[in-house]
Amino acid sequence: MTLSFDPDSLILPVGHFIGGQLLPAQGVLPMHRPSDEKAYADCPVANVDLVDQAVQTAKAALKTSNWGGVRPRERLNVLHRWADLIEQEAVTLARLEAISSTRPVGQLVSGDIAVSAEQIRFFAEFADKEGSDLVPTDDASLGMIMTEPYGVVGAITPWNFPINMAAWKLGPALAAGNAVVLKPSEMTPFSTLYLAELAVRAGMPAGLINIVLGDGMTTGNAMTGHPDIAKVSFTGSTRAGSAIMENIARTGIKPMTLELGGKSPQVVFADADIGKAAAAVTASIISNAGQACVAGSRLIVEKSAAAELIDAILVKMAAVTPGPTWDAESRYSPIISDRQRWRIDDIVKASVAAGAQCLTGGHFMDSEGYFYAPTLLTAVNQNSPAVIEEIFGPVLTLQTFEDEEEAMMLADHPSYGLAAGLFTGDLSRAIRLTRRLQAGTIWVNRYGRSRDHILPTGGYKQSGIGKDLGREAFQANRKSKSVLISL
């Protein structure tokens, strides 16, 4: 079966998924396909009452199924069956995601969807292996630290990697014994709805996963401010994360995990493998057209190696060709919306007006859809808009340095600290500078996540609070109590 498909022939699950079934709903938010700009569907918006229905359904499902109190192995088995179904239904999931998102269908089956199944299996294994601890006390007492699920977790996922981000939220929360009410982006909801359906087919008690569609102002605020949502997990922009924190503080106090924006540096020394560095640097800004929070958008290179590195990057950027996300041969992503494409262009033009030199790109691509050309800006300084702002597009800035101190000064961003890359052939330098880089994730002589799901991700500064992935994500979905018993 070919992965390519006719987007007009795809049947879309439009509605909310509550209590184990799709509840059809009238759409009110117009949706446009990024690959051809065509209006093709309307997304419904869950109001306060419908969000409350989803939360109460989740609470009831927790009680009737005793999901948090059953043998942990039972949760593990259900999650493994769910992962199996995700792999079996990968083509359907890929098409539902490709039609609305920036993700080419050819990259989804073996990439995002396979990784999502792996992550759910990874978190499933914590269910019967992580638990309470006995702690040392005197002979006359017994001390324990007991952990238990929060209850109902509220999750909000972004549009750039819809199914993968849903797995980040659902996997650890469910393995830890919680129920989840999840709001996907109103621009890319369809694969998440089908993901929830597969969970029920795998034996997940109906109501443990509820998907409500809508925007941040109405649906998101209703979720994060709901008194029965015990914990919030969000991935998205720093601005939206700040609004969520404000809404939570206004309506009550609850723990939260926030994976937010980034403006990540890639520091390249002259002793690095320049060819390898060029491939990693270019891939990080071309992948998903730079629409990733960890995109390595600030290239900081030792002056003596700059010319060689620039030449290699320009060759790779020139080879990029646009294509619709429903074509299995497409490799380069469109921008998610026309508004976002114009925002990217405005920042590039403002940077050029401030003195930056555009070596390539800096314009809309001559094709159908919201495509923006891979762009390389040089002659920028620390005050350039392209250096300061998270662009969320295929725009790479380049600065040069003479020594380590200057490199570290340029790498440090006043607001963000999500990820950083470091390329060098000197092991001592790599370890020394890894300690100095202010970011939650450091990649050395590579750039981008692997399938080592044990490594947590999360940011410093305004790039977030808490961790996704890793043991930390599972532990963040359980609360602890201290117990001291006199014997």
Tally of DSSP helical segments: 15
Mean pLDDT: 97
Q: Remind me, CATH topology of the largest domain?
A: Aldehyde Dehydrogenase, Chain A, domain 1
Query: How far apart are the first and last residues' alpha carbons, in Å?
Result: 67 Å
Give the strand content: 15-25%
| Global shape | globular
Contiguous low-pLDDT stretches (5 residues minimum) are none
CATH H-level superfamily title of the largest domain: Aldehyde Dehydrogenase, Chain A, domain 1
Oligomer: single chain
The radius of gyration over CA amounts to: 23 Å
Order of neighbouring strands in the sheet with most strands:
14-15-16-13-12-18-19
Task: Describe what you observe in this structure.
By secondary structure, the chain is an alpha/beta fold. The protein has 2 domains: 7-260 and 464-486, 3-Layer(aba) Sandwich (Aldehyde Dehydrogenase, Chain A, domain 1), CATH 3.40.605; 265-452, Aldehyde Dehydrogenase, Chain A, domain 2. 38% of the residues lie in helices and 20% in strands. It has 15 helices and 22 strands. Strands 14-15-16-13-12-18-19 form a 7-stranded mixed beta sheet, with helices on both faces. Strands 9-8-7-10-11-21 form a 6-stranded mixed beta sheet, sandwiched between helices. A 3-stranded antiparallel beta sheet has the order 5-6-22, with no helix packed on it. Helix 5 (162-175) links the parallel strand 7 and strand 8 (179-183). Helix 2 packs across helix 6 (190-201). It starts with 14 loop residues before the first strand and ends with a strand.
